[in-house]
Amino acid sequence: MARQLAREHYAPLAAEWDAGRVPLPAEERRRLGDLGLLGITLPEEFGGSAAPVLDALLVIEELAKECRPAAFQVFECTTGPATVVNLLGGDELRARYLPPIIRGQATMAVAISEPDAGSAATDMTTRAVLDGDVYRVTGTKRWISGGGHADQYLLYARMADVPGARGIGALVVDADTPGISFGAQEKLMGFRGIPSCDIHLDDVPVPAANLLVPAGRFRDLFTGFSLERLGNATMSLAIAQAALDRTLGYVVERRAFGKPLIDFQATQMTVADMVLQVEAARLLVHRAARTAGHGLPSPLEVSLAKCTANETAKRVTDLAIQLHGGNGYTEEYGLERLHRDAHGWALAGGTPTMQRTRIVSELLGRAFDQRR
Asked: What is the pTM of this model?
């Protein structure tokens, strides 16, 4: 069903939305909710399906082959901040926020990075100070996928006067809370149709009941964030598979020197490398998903999957452009859009460089202090 929806409904619209930098219309989000695609991994009591994360990844891949903005909605609900709220939040918080998200009536984005805290997330300076029954939040957040359009933000903030990760916790912040303002929308190379902007918080009052995780449980938050990285890896996998699919069709039909491109051994070697990389990425993504089941995946398996899938998407889309020759450099064939988006997913959620550090850290069971 997801494949049919992607090919018949979203494929004709995706290039137009990309060219115009148009966020996914609200009615399309509700369409995904009505089809049950936004609650795949979320509890039945809130309108979800309570399925394992692999089910969601299969849907994300099919949608993302044609339209990343549509796939992103499923991604955020089934592997992103809504899932973190479900796994770490209390009953009241879950009951308040999850049903409208599952129905497609509201969206939630994650706000971690700051102007001076990207890969070094624990350098964040946004503060949340408890004042009676509210937290007063002050700071600036950047690189928020969904920024300026989401209804709520899962916001990481420093909640205690201790250095590093130990002082960080998270709150759910409603976008219409007084004291919140938004910067101009970023004009990104890719990710078009997935809005992003700075969020400025000036003494924003957030009810204490919106606390998701207090200071001292940063590790829980980032273990939950592993699911988001698994969704990210699937977006990259979908991009690579789409580039491969288009290339296979092209090299069979396109002729040069009197024969199809696929008859040249150089073409065969390139296509074989593309297939090898895509299949290796898929196996790593699916292994991490099976480990997760209905819960959290192995951080090591996720970092292996994300790093591999991110780099596969960049390499395979580049090779696809080469095999298409001049046609690959046009907008008509859609490869440039895939290539632009491939670079975006490799930057989001922890770069391949950071994933390599995490791979060694998880493998050896020790942390590496990059500040010394």
From this structure: 0.94
Backbone phi and psi for residue 267, each to the nearest 5 degrees, phi listed first? -65, -40
Range of the domain at 166: 110-215
Query: Are 238 and 151 part of one and the same domain?
Result: no
Q: What's the rounded Cα separation, in Å, for the pair 274 and 313?
A: 10
170-201, pLDDT tens digit by residue? 999 999 999 999 999 999 999 898 999 999 99
Q: Bridge-partner residues for 172, per DSSP? A: 154
CATH label of the domain that carries residue 271:
1.20.140.10
